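Figure 3 (text version): structure tokens given as input.
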């Protein structure tokens, strides 16, 4: 995908700048204290978990303002896409075939997944990577201790560590489709050897590859830090505001071939029979986060962490509904026509939400000799309202902000506790055990839900390290995940027409991981195999509800199994090779589902491929440094065929695709004014492949294609002082 390619441009050049800005000894101590914030959710080589890390330097090499799903696209078994085709609007990712709604995401150990949808909408936090100290992606159940269960992966982000010296950074990028990003970062450096203030503000705008796929994204990050001896206190606020034209509707095959940039969102026919588009068919949302963290080293053995968090989210979709609706359905007085039938009208309305999420996470860690023991928990509460407001109706007296539907206040509460132990039983052998007890309750009067789930999720494993270069591990983990609001909404809507529709139930996963890690000065290699067996997995059907959320259905038994490999190989002083390869099988066993072409009938198809789960995902980066401070990288991505539903029929197939990007990066270090001036130029999809990384399911059973951009570019200059 083109946006995958946004990342690998900077390669090895900026590490020297980071080293200049920091005092090595003090920074090491600070980062160790920072890492206490994520120690409960992070894996290390001592733990039998499959994971990949991105450091501050690696993030800088890859981040041009794209959303995090695209930043992670070259990690093993990750497939990312963007609805706007160019990577700056709504984006999502699949990890081992599991989507964002099934990926546990934390920032500084605080849960970020929306409590009701369980998804993460990354464009609400645009350019977050610019304020990240490190990112870890865990595949499988992982060590997710806080927040929703991980059914394919966990992502945890650690925000910026304290800067020892004052610094500033100005970044400007411009590229195809009138894409431009402007950001500024500042830090006071450490004041009186204790305090630091830092911040970032970013603006990203793009017209998008598809018609009217515009994005207007603003984000901020402000952090105050106190660090002295064994105490670290971080107070931070961050968030973003997005205004994007809706792009979730795809194209039929004929339109894709004739006009692949076409976007049907907002299309309507006026009274004269002319095709028009509503110019404010948009998604508008603001999300603000506040976090307060206290990490304390009480002694060489004991460390504790205590965090409080609050998130405010508010926004709406605005849409022109071209299909007429009865007056009484949209809050207008009921009127009858000459035939005695209730009048209908087309209308414009906003589908809105207003939510609050707050809570606390806490942990304590004891380390001594062969023992590493952590225990902790979380208490969180969510309150959210969903409502619809009528703005305009055809042939009706003017109306504005007439709230005609209010769902009431939905509530979700979570209490969880965990304990995890790593014990070195012999010089080469380590045992790992992790147990979590989680209780979650959800109430929604409109969706007829008042349910509580208590789950016990154990994990255990063993690591064998025969020498300093090798680690071999095996682990078992169990996870339980509750349905989300959209699952209940889809069920309630279906009941009106199909009384035998099954109610969604919690899904369960047993995850087995076997892996080998090898690391020397010239080669780092990770090889692992996995088997993930599901009970009642909520698989995607490829269809969406009226507010753009995916419709899912429970499958009684299913599994995912495969092998994954990634490596970094220093071929010479000038050549670097970074492959990432995954082969898998993703199967619904004895699939019994709804016929996409005839919703009143069911299909019994035996074993079928799970939707959105390609069996082959290969990434590759070759980097060449002909001279110091100049790097050329060829970045390639191959994704095998996949299906937008669970029938396995050719009618629902997305073809394989192979995409190549080329990036150039040169860093100039002037003697005055700036520490560094970094020039970058990236060509995306340089072979001009016309591919579709994502699609949805037409109710007729075919594919609605969402295309990616053809050949395009992005150029930038980053000034560090």
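Below: residues designed for each position.
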């Amino acid at each position: 995908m083109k946006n995958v390619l946004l990342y690998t441009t900077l390669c090895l050049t900026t590490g020297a700048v980071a080293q200049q800005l920091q005092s090595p000894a003090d920074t090491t101590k600070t980062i160790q204290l920072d890492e206490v914030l994520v120690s409960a959710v992070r894996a290390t080589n001592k733990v039998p978990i499959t994971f990949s890390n991105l450091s501050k330097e690696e993030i800088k090499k890859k981040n041009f303002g794209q959303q995090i799903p695209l930043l992670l696209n070259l990690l093993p078994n990750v497939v990312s896409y963007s609805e706007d085709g160019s990577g700056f609007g709504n984006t999502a990712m699949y990890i081992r075939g599991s989507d964002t709604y099934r990926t546990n995401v934390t920032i500084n150990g605080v849960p970020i997944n929306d409590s009701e949808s369980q998804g993460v909408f990354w464009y609400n936090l645009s350019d977050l990577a610019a304020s990240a100290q490190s990112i870890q992606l865990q595949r499988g159940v992982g060590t997710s201790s806080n927040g929703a269960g991980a059914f394919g992966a966990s992502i945890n982000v650690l925000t910026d560590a304290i800067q020892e010296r004052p610094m500033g950074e100005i970044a400007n990028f411009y590229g195809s489709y009138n894409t431009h990003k402007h950001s500024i970062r500042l830090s006071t450096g450490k004041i009186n050897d204790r305090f630091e203030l830092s911040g970032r503000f970013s603006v990203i705008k793009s017209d998008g590859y598809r018609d009217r796929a515009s994005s207007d994204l603003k984000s901020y990050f402000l952090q105050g830090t106190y660090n002295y001896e064994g105490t670290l206190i971080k107070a931070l606020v961050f968030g973003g505001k997005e205004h994007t034209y809706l792009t979730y509707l795809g194209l039929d095959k004929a339109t894709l071939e004739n006009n692949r940039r076409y976007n049907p969102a907002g299309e309507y026919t006026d009274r004269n029979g002319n095709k028009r588009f509503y110019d404010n068919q948009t998604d508008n949302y603001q999300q603000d986060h506040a976090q307060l963290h206290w990490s304390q080293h009480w002694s060489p053995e004991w460390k504790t962490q205590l965090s409080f968090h609050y998130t405010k989210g508010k926004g709406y979709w605005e849409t022109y509904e071209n299909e007429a609706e009865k007056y009484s359905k949209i809050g207008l007085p009921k009127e009858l026509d000459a035939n005695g039938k209730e009048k209908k009208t087309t209308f414009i309305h906003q589908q809105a939400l207003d939510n609050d999420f707050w809570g606390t996470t806490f942990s304590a860690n004891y380390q001594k000799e062969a023992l590493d023991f952590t225990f902790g928990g979380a208490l969180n509460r969510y309150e959210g309202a969903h409502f619809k407001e009528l703005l305009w109706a055809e042939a009706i007296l003017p109306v504005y902000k007439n709230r005609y539907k209010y769902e009431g206040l939905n509530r979700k509460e979570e209490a969880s506790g965990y304990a995890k132990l790593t014990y070195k039983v012999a010089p080469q052998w380590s045992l790992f055990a992790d147990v979590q007890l989680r209780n979650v309750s959800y109430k929604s009067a409109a969706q007829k839900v008042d349910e509580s789930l208590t789950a016990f999720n154990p994990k255990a494993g063993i690591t064998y390290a025969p020498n300093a270069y090798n680690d071999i591990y095996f682990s078992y983990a169990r996870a339980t995940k509750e349905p989300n609001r959209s699952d209940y909404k889809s069920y309630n809507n279906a009941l009106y027409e199909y009384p035998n529709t099954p109610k969604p139930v919690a899904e369960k996963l047993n995850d087995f991981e076997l892996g080998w890690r090898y690391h020397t000065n010239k080669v780092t290699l990770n090889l692992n195999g996995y088997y993930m067996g599901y009970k009642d997995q909520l698989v995607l059907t490829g269809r969406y509800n009226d507010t753009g959320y995916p419709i899912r259905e429970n499958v009684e038994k299913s599994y995912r199994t495969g092998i994954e490999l990634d490596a970094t190989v220093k071929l010479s002083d000038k050549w670097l090779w970074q492959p990432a390869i995954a082969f898998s099988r993703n199967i619904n066993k004895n699939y019994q589902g709804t016929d996409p072409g005839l919703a009143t009938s069911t299909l019994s198809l035996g074993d079928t491929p799970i939707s959105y789960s390609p069996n082959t995902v290969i990434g590759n980066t070759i980097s060449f440094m002909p001279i110091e401070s100049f790097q050329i990288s060829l970045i390639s991505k191959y994704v095998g065929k996949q299906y937008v539903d669970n029938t396995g029929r050719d009618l629902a197939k997305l073809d394989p695709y192979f995409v190549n990007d080329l990036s150039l990066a040169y860093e100039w270090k002037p003697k005055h004014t700036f520490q560094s001036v970094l020039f970058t130029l990236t060509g995306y999809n340089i072979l001009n492949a016309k591919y579709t990384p994502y699609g949805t399911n037409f109710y007729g059973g075919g594919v609605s294609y969402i295309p990616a951009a053809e050949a395009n570019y992005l150029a930038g200059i980053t000034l560090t002082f």
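The chain has a mean pLDDT of 90.
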